[in-house]
Amino acid sequence: MKRMSILMTLVLALAILLGACGAPPTQPVPAGEEAQPAEAAEAAEGAAEDAAPVAETEVEATATPIVAEAGEGDLQLIFWNGLTGSDGATMVQIVQSFADENPDVSVRVEMMPWDIYFDKLLTSLVSGNPPDVFLLHEFEIPQFASQGVLRDTSDFYQEMGGPIDETDIVPYTLEALNFEGNRYGVPLDIHGFGLWTNKDLLEAAGLDPEMCPATGEEYVQMARQLTLDANGNNADSADFDPENVTQWGTAVSWFKVTFLSLLYQYGGDWSDRAGTATLDSEAATKAVTFWKGLIDNEHVAPQPAGYDSWQSFAGGNLAMITEGSWMLNFNNDAGINWNICPFPQIGDEKGVWTSSHVMYVPTTLEGDRLEAAKRLISYISDHGLVWATSGMPSARVSVQEEIGASSDLPSAKLLGESFQEFGHYDYAMPCIQEVILAYEPELDAIYNGTKTMEQGLADANSRVQDILDRCQ
Length: 472
Prior knowledge:
Blueprint: H1 5-18, H2 31-35, H3 53-61, E1 66-70, E2 75-81, H4 86-101, E3 105-111, H5 114-127, E4 133-137, H6 141-145, H7 171-176, E5 178-179, E6 182-183, E7 186-187, E8 191-198, H8 199-204, H9 216-226, E9 228-229, E10 245-247, H10 255-265, H11 282-296, H12 309-314, E11 320-324, H13 328-333, E12 338-342, E13 352-355, E14 357-360, H14 367-382, H15 384-387, H16 397-405, H17 410-422, E15 423-425, H18 432-447, H19 453-470
Parallel strand pairs: 2-3, 2-4, 13-15
Antiparallel strand pairs: 1-3, 4-14, 5-6, 7-14, 8-11, 8-12, 8-13, 9-10
Helix pairs in contact: 1-4, 10-11, 18-19
């Protein structure tokens, strides 16, 4: 018996709270990167835990997995992921179609917040009772593969007799799956950040509603024109009152992503990839200076602590937000008249953080269950055009070409093109989540004024160096 309608409703209801790939509406520090001891991963791709009590309430409210059962086949696969927003509903739709076309297989989909998900997944893998298929990101491969819990999936690809055409995978994404001579997982997408704007607010400010800032200067100028005080003065006005803002031009969103994106633009990174932390570099200083300047100098962005950027954007009190491709369905559900722009070039060259959801299987999977998992993963990969309706550009070359030819998927088209043009994957190493947990709180302290920029970056560098010294 199919039990989808109620469960799908639950998933869709959670979209308003958690917004897409798990990113909820509160800033500044992603919940998965602050709350979990060992794994943070892409976290909730935007969720805040420090910012306000509501963030903790939302995470606690979804601690029990959202479960969707698809099909009636005797062979049941268990599929875990962290897609607790409306992108999860899209994934369940694809899985249901798979079950309809493969009646011998049923699939139990379990979705939980990323911060809970990673600890639970690692425990299940180590204990020998893992799901049959699970979702992680490309930069987590060294951490999980080095513990011997990921199955080499080279035989999932056609060159070794499998169903996946490796020549149809975006080359740099395929390369990111390789670790110590093995290939782990099948990529689902390439996701990352762009700039979402509220066209109604741009038009009200006398701006072209389709306008996209190409540079940092244009971005700041737009933000100044879109920031309004209680008297209706914008930040360009001599009468502007920065202590009484009712509409913000922009906001400093997910710290990891916005910081790394500008690090790349200024030619830097968080390490030299040879064992030395570089968070006290000139590039890091420039990156933080820009974001902090929006708050302290330009007065076009709120102090992040306690500020709910997603809900402010939905409520028409925030005009522009740098956010992920996963925000699409949240914006649609909220009825926002949105436009999507590439991430602006603020530094010396174009650059933006990107990542990929990747489908994996455990080392213990074998026999009929392994063959069924191959079928499921191949089916999901083949249906990247459906997945793109959640805002996520596909990792398949042929699907990206279909997206490019469609007028129905403007955000996936534009962002997919920008990610391929100037996207950067994070440095994948076995202790990457510890690194993220080390530097993000320092960014929080800088932006919220509890540490100077010099002290915060020095502390971040020291903390990351300690990790690198014991984790090479």
